[in-house]
Amino acid sequence: LFFILNQIYRPKTSENLKNIHQNSGIILQLDLETALEECNVALHLFLNNRFADALSSLEPRKSHSMYHAMGYSSILLMQAAMTFDPKDMDVAMASLKEALHTCQRFRRKTGIMESLASFWHGQPFDNLTEEEMHAELCYAEVLMQKAALTFLDESVISFIKGGMGMRSSYLIYKNCQAMENVIEDGEKERNTHIHFRGGVNMGIGSFNLILSMLPSRVLRLMEFLGFSGDREFGLSQLREGAASNSLRSILSTLTLLMFHLYMSVILGTGEGNLPEAEALLKPYADKYPNGALMLFYTARIAVLKGNFTFAQEKFLACIATQEEWRQIHHLCFWELMWAYSFEQNWTEAYRYADCLCKENKWSQATYVFQKAAILSMLPEEEVAKTGENVVALFRQVDGLRLRIAGKSIPTEKFAAKKAQRYAPPKPLKLVVPALEMMYVWNGFMVVGKRPELTEGILSTLEAAEEQLRSDPDPSEFHTDDVCVVQMLKGLCLTQLGRLVQAEICFNFVISREKDIKHDTYLVPFTMYELGLLHKLKGDINTAITVIEKAKMNYRDYSMESRLHFRIHAVLNTMGSFEAKLPPSRT
Ligand SMILES: *[C@@H]1O[C@H](CO)[C@@H](O)[C@H](O)[C@H]1NC(C)=O
Ligand SMILES: *[C@@H]1O[C@H](CO)[C@@H](O)[C@H](O)[C@H]1NC(C)=O
Ligand SMILES: *[C@@H]1O[C@H](CO)[C@@H](O)[C@H](O)[C@H]1NC(C)=O
């Protein structure tokens, strides 16, 4: 219904706007090719860290050219997403709405009958001109950005609105894709067409890739709503987009990098495709050696390779290269905090956690928890030097939590739950909170690239184990604490290839299921890790059984959806393994 109404109401506004446009804007109207060239110049400025210059170069024509409008509002959206400041969000929203209007003017006017007919026949956009095709694409892009911004607003209504926006955007992309498939060869040779094709690759690719990561029960619902989530197809579209020489190649590239370097690590099996990421980044890193984005991704690749020293240098270079967008510094602080945590250099890690607490607004609860957790790893006299009060920090966490779309953020909820142990007058200390958080972000996979550092972490865990064993007055959290340590030990041992010992640790945690009072997340997560261990040993059937058990038998524990993402990812890899077996085995 929403779709039909949308179609029916479109023509009128479109016509009005076109009239206004024709009366007032003729002189400023640009042909498509010039607009694309100017946007390319702005993009060049942007990648050279000249963010304000890029914005002001697009500003004069933003009401008359869809590409200027789209570029302008995209930069503002990025800024808003980075600062999280309500004022910036309002500015971005206003400019996205204006950009929608600008794009709308260039779209084909359709009558009611025409749009109903096209709705039934599923081929709404017959024989559009090149400019009209670009208008569809830009419209879909801006619509997607507007929906993304709507999601950040804090109510349930905006969540639904965001969802509808995403859906409309996706449908237009699908139409664009259909147009691209039937278009004649002559058309394809136009200079501007390559940019259309690149845009379709980017949009369709991103939608498919992101949806393919969703756990199956969500994915099924999304597919019911008309989305498709085919990972391989999404990747191939993005690769094609990245390889094309179009305005949006960089966006396809950045999406692929995001996928390999973040999403696969945090929500997947932890094995991003690093060689591909390096190859994708190289041309841009060569062309923009001081570009903040390039330095950042170069450093991130080094982190995932276990080359922390090099990564630290590059993150510092990324901070030094520009001052305009402070938020990029914050991303670097976050990464530096982890890079030093992997080395167990807690003093340095604390420094960056503290910077985040002081400067960034994304998730104060996480930062304060993280800072307190890191301080808990330091000896008392070191903590005294910093002048911080660890207990007071933990007590702040709960009050700092955010709500997005009426829901709390899982990591914040997790942190707040852990921090509760500091609420009573006589706090019951957490054992190895910083290492536990490292697991939450899948850090053991990363540090596993460096056996000597993994050994170091293992020693820390063994010391904690010893301390718990000799505890004269075990608290109600004793079993939970022992199990946290055993699970983390199992992870280190797995990384070190000591699989038999690792399995003992994991089985210990699973056997204590009935005695674990608070950290109920431990059992399903440990079961998942045990499944990965069986997979590593080559015992795929046991792996699948154990992981399915983790998926089916547990509910309502911390970070449940994160585990479901990881389970979905790993079952996918094993599914494809099975498919390759000869038929007689299956
Ligand atoms: C679209 O163009 C083709 C060939 O250029 C033509 O045969 C067809 O009738 C056109 N369709 C519409 C709806 O105008
Ligand atoms: C880290 O990466 C840099 C640059 O790629 C390289 O020169 C250096 O040898 C690497 N160091 C280690 C320990 O791998
Ligand atoms: C921690 O890192 C800093 C900066 O790289 C270095 O100076 C210091 O020696 C390191 N400390 C430890 C204990 O490794």
UniProtKB/TrEMBL annotation:
Keyword match Iron: no
GO biological process assignments: lipid metabolic process
InterPro entries in UniProt: IML2/TPR_39 (IPR019412), TPR-like_helical_dom_sf (IPR011990)
Family, as annotated: Belongs to the TTC39 family.
Designated name of the protein: Tetratricopeptide repeat protein 39B
Record PANTHER family: TETRATRICOPEPTIDE REPEAT PROTEIN 39 FAMILY MEMBER, TETRATRICOPEPTIDE REPEAT PROTEIN 39B
Keyword field: Lipid metabolism, Repeat, TPR repeat
SUPFAM superfamilies membership: TPR-like
Pfam family, one: Iml2-TPR_39
Keyword field contains Lipid metabolism: yes
